[in-house]
Design goal:
With about 350 residues, the chain is of the alpha+beta class. The protein has ten helices and 18 strands.
Length: about 350
């Protein structure tokens, strides 16, 4: 009989990670802690990306968080770890660290600058090194409530600027109101319904949202300029170029400037190792968000999302992750690695 292997104190490890501030672009202290905790020498370490281990599966987790909301330091209460980044995604990082410390054979990839535009991602340099090019599957431990989230949406952030002609607000007919032009230019967008796209039996929803509006200089001046920021979440199957063209179709008026464009990723459910993981985690949902699975997919590496974090609490002030999820994720991935 094989002796039972005890589960490490995943809650305490998660809390330890939470209590090290690591807002995007300021992750150095947490990078140092990961170096201390993960056994063995790093195969790659450029100060922003750490890679350890070997094997056909890469486990990936980002170290950065959004800005604090008076939720650091964290605490453990009510069967959950509370605090900044606990769910997204220091819980997943804790599971990765403890799998590595338990000697589970896999490649463990820790990286910074995920919660900001993909143009600042440090992962391309790692990909260019060729150290993960032969990976058969990447598992990104984003929050998924311990079910599989397949694929991911692409994510465009864009600004559309409308121009007019300034005038006195008592005689608006002598100018052109840029805010009015903006309202007219967004009319079709306001009437747009979500577009459902089905892939591998999963339904992804394409949506466009106006998320910020700017314009006007004074209450008695017809504005000559107004702008709106748009967020377009596009389904797998669209390339970056197709997505930008679609956004221009939806808002033909005004000057459109793409600020960032993070690609989508296909579900990859037919991957042989993903099939093995599904034997342990049969419930699958589409990832109605963007994650780094897209960066792996762009490099020809199949990837899927599976992690302990609670999606309902990601980025909330009372961010938290159930301790039960931590333990379930750890045991599931340890069993998965034992089968490959």
């Amino acid at each position: 009989m094989t002796p039972a292997v005890s589960t490490p104190d995943l809650a305490a490890r998660t809390l330890q990670l939470v209590d090290v501030p690591s807002e995007s672009r300021s992750e150095g202290a947490l990078v140092d802690l990961v170096r201390e905790l993960v056994p063995g020498p790093a195969l790659y370490d450029d100060g922003q990306v750490l890679l350890y281990g070997d094997g056909p599966v890469v486990f990936a987790g980002h170290l950065d968080t959004i800005p604090a909301q008076e939720n650091i330091p964290g605490h453990i209460a009510g069967g959950a770890v509370h605090g900044l980044g606990s769910s997204d995604m220091k819980a997943g990082v804790a599971v990765m660290i403890e799998l590595a410390r338990a000697g589970a054979r896999g490649r463990y990839l820790f990286f910074t600058r995920e919660e900001i535009p993909v143009a600042e991602s440090p992962l391309p340099a790692l990909f260019d090194s060729g150290l993960v090019a032969d990976a058969q599957l990447a598992v990104v431990l984003e929050p998924t409530d311990c079910i599989l989230h397949a694929g991911c949406l692409g994510n465009i952030q864009a600004r559309v600027t409308f121009h007019g002609q300034s005038a006195h607000s008592a005689r608006p007919w002598t100018g052109v109101n840029a805010i009015h032009e903006l309202v007219r230019g967004l009319q079709g967008l306001g009437d747009l319904e979500p577009r459902d796209v089905e892939l591998d039996g999963l339904t992804f929803r394409e949506v466009v949202s106006a998320v910020r509006v700017e314009g006007g200089i004074a209450s008695n001046v017809v504005p000559a300029r107004a702008s709106v920021e748009l967020n377009f979440r596009y389904a797998p199957g669209r390339s970056r170029e197709d997505a930008e063209a679609r956004l221009r179709e939806l808002v033909p008026a005004g000057e459109l400037e793409v600020l960032s464009n993070s690609p989508s990723a296909p579900p990859a459910l037919a991957n042989p190792l993903a099939v093995k993981l599904r034997e342990l985690v049969p419930e699958v949902a589409p990832k109605q968000a963007w994650t780094p699975v897209a960066q792996f997919a762009e490099r020809g590496i199949d990837a899927i999302n599976y992690g302990p974090g609670a999606t309902a609490y990601a980025h909330k002030q009372d961010e938290q992750v159930p301790v039960e999820n931590l333990e379930r994720c750890f045991e599931t991935l340890r069993a998965f690695l034992g089968s490959v």
